[in-house]
Write a structure and sequence with these properties.
- The chain has about 260 residues and is an all-alpha fold.
- The protein has helices at about 10-40, 50-65, 80-90, 95-100, 105-110, 115-120, 130-145, 145-155, 165-180, 190-195, 205-210, 215-225, 235-245, 250-260.
- It folds into two domains: about 10-155, no CATH class; about 165-260, no CATH class.
- It is elongated and about 70 Å long.
């Protein structure tokens, strides 16, 4: 049976090229901005975003709470429009980041992308001049970061976790704690993925997560409590007594069993 060829939109090739470059530019800028804000304000950097933007971000994140579409909770900067992203880049506390890309000249080039970006986003043909402007800005970003640096940022955007992805990362961490527990080490590592997973929309209840959130949270609470025990000479007995009284091993096994329900 002969397959029918899908007709191509006359300006499809140029628009797809423009969109691909715009996507990379925006992902890179959001990731660089996140790193800059983290460096400036630490883990609480999200709270330093302007109030009106925080409100908008929360509203947009709430729209993702629709399990039928299998959304994941993105990083807060991914809920900002192109214009709002540009506004953040114009603030004084990220001046060093902007200077890295070319300073005021770079911001002007960003502003020039509004027209071709709107054309692409609304299925209108991007002009040759517009495509050239996008390509020129992408080349500047690549030069500033180096091709390898740009590739690393694009490969790992702050785009949330699905239930099965989180489970596949949490299980080995808990299994490592379970295996090391008899040796009574001074502390265990709490993986960053737990913090990321716990802010996903599906962490709201068991039916969305597909496993018992209480079991997993209980395991990590015990790990943190264990890490807070005295760690000096002769304190191993305290850690052993804690493990026995709190039944840490049982809680770890329970959490692992729950996570395996969705670790496909």
């Amino acid at each position: 049976m002969r397959s029918e060829m899908v007709p191509q939109v006359p300006f499809e090739e140029a628009n797809v090229r423009a969109y691909a470059l715009l996507l990379r530019i925006e992902v890179v800028l959001r990731e660089c901005l996140r790193a800059s804000l983290e460096s400036e304000y630490g883990a609480a950097w999200r709270k330093r975003l302007p109030g009106e933007l925080l409100k908008k971000i929360k509203e947009s994140q709430a729209e993702d709470n629709r399990p039928q579409f299998n959304f994941v909770r993105l990083g807060p900067l991914y809920y900002l429009t192109f214009g709002e992203l540009l506004t953040l880049l114009q603030q004084k506390h990220v001046r060093s980041l902007v200077e890295r890309f070319g300073g005021e000249c770079f911001l002007k080039q960003m502003e020039n992308l509004f027209a071709p970006r709107n054309a692409v986003c609304h299925s209108r043909p991007v002009t040759l001049v517009g495509l050239k402007a996008i390509e020129a800005l992408y080349a500047e970003v690549e030069t500033a970061l180096t091709p390898d640096g740009l590739a690393r940022l694009v490969a790992k955007p702050d785009c949330g976790l699905a239930q099965n992805e989180a489970a596949r990362l949490l299980i080995p961490a808990l299994e490592e704690v379970l295996g090391d527990l008899p040796a009574l080490p001074k502390a265990f590592i709490v993986p960053e993925v737990f913090e990321t997973a716990s802010v996903q929309f599906w962490w709201a209840n068991d039916s969305l997560a597909g496993f018992s959130l209480h079991a997993v949270e209980a395991a990590f609470t015990l790990i943190r409590q264990y890490n807070g025990l005295p760690a000096g000479v002769g304190c191993a007995a305290i850690r052993q007594r804690f493990g026995e009284q709190q039944r840490v091993e049982k809680h770890l096994q329970s959490a692992i069993s729950e996570l395996r329900k969705v670790a496909l």
